[in-house]
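Q: Please design a sequence for this.
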């Protein structure tokens, strides 16, 4: 990769923003705050030919909704709009057997959110066109009458099956106490657009006595393949500054999901926000991007601290070490680098961010989707 491209991507291991200017990284999409269309749910994938695809959805009271998909054929330097999906959000990309998939929540534009419905679409032309989810044989699912919620979380192949975490959003409870996670899985050889191909585990209901009654809910689980079996790391809402992940374990056949509160919680910097966790394809543990809380910052509400993005590493999904601060701005009320999704690209790590910058509505209601590169990221792992 050329030095110019690395500089244009504006990434350094410890990149701290000290002056207001354009947001860091490469801007893929921008929605001014007066549109009241806020950028959410970043997703990223690298296609077999090296093309990058990035996606986001829109939320808020504005007139636009759904997802936008962008493509880059110059390693993230420039991006063009490739597809618009007005009836799907909270979605993940994944590749399987030569096809590209996009899986998340379905809703019908102009008729409001349809709680409980999931959509999975397939593209055979690198995201230019997509199947249309019309019913249970073409990618439009209703799971056991559950009110499904999700996010742009990992999709993993393990043990001959494809796995993804979803949550049931129980009625009558305030965010995020309503979420009850379960896993969906399908055999690798199955027709993934056919709902009968997918199997759901049981729901795992939270207990708000956990963590000495500081547990506030869980959501947005990353499903991760390990040598010991499949694991699902959940974002954990807490009402104290200490942050955690919760590890759930499915049975190999995808029928049951289990959580042991005595052993299932682990310290995880940034655990109260949506993180992305993936195993290193070269072995040697697991990497994560999360919104860490800098020392000295008042974090009485840790889920709201999103102005610092850290790179983390773990040898075992239990013990996590902060390797670098990738993005930071002191204005925690206004600025955010949140909901990261990343992929490995040789010696580099690339990621997209839901970025709230100077003229955003606030830190949460982001106005940019930005792309970033961390060159030679493994060198940031502290040496013993």
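A: Design:
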């Amino acid at each position: 990769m050329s030095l110019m491209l690395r500089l244009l991507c504006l990434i350094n291991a410890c990149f701290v923003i000290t002056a207001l200017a354009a947001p860091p990284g490469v801007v893929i999409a921008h929605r001014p705050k007066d549109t009241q269309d806020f950028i959410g749910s970043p997703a990223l994938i690298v296609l077999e030919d090296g093309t990058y695809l990035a996606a986001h959805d829109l939320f808020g009271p504005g007139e636009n909704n759904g997802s936008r998909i962008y493509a880059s054929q110059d390693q993230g330097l420039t991006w063009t709009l490739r597809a618009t999906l007005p009836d799907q959000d909270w979605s993940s990309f994944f590749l399987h057997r030569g096809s590209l998939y996009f899986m998340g929540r379905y809703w019908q534009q102009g008729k409001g959110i349809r709680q409980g419905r999931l959509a999975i679409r397939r593209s055979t032309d690198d995201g230019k066109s997509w199947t249309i989810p019309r019913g249970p044989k073409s990618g439009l699912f209703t799971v056991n009458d559950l009110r499904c919620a999700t996010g742009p979380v990992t999709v993993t192949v393990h043990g001959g099956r494809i796995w993804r975490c979803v949550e049931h959003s129980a009625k009558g409870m305030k965010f995020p106490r309503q979420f009850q996670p379960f896993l969906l899985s399908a055999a690798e050889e199955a027709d993934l657009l056919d709902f009968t191909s997918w199997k759901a585990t049981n729901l795992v209901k939270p207990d708000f006595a956990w963590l000495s009654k500081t547990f506030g809910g869980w959501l947005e689980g990353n499903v991760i393949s390990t040598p010991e079996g499949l694991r699902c790391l959940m974002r954990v809402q807490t009402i104290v500054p200490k942050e955690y992940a919760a590890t759930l374990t499915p049975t190999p056949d995808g029928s049951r999901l289990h959580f042991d509160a005595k052993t299932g919680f682990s310290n995880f910097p940034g655990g109260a926000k949506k993180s992305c966790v993936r195993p290193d394809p070269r072995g040697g543990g697991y990497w994560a991007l999360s919104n860490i809380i800098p020392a000295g910052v008042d974090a009485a509400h840790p889920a709201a601290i999103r102005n610092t993005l850290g790179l983390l590493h773990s040898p075992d999904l239990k013990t996590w070490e902060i390797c670098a601060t990738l993005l930071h701005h002191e204005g925690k009320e206004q600025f955010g680098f949140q909901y990261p999704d990343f992929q490995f690209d040789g010696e580099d790590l690339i990621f997209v961010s839901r970025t709230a910058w100077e003229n955003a509505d606030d830190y949460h209601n982001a106005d940019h989707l930005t792309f970033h590169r961390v060159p030679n990221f493994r060198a940031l792992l502290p040496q013993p």
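Q: Thanks. Anything notable?
A: Residues 97 and 331 are 44 Å apart (CA to CA). The helical segments are 3-8, 210-213.
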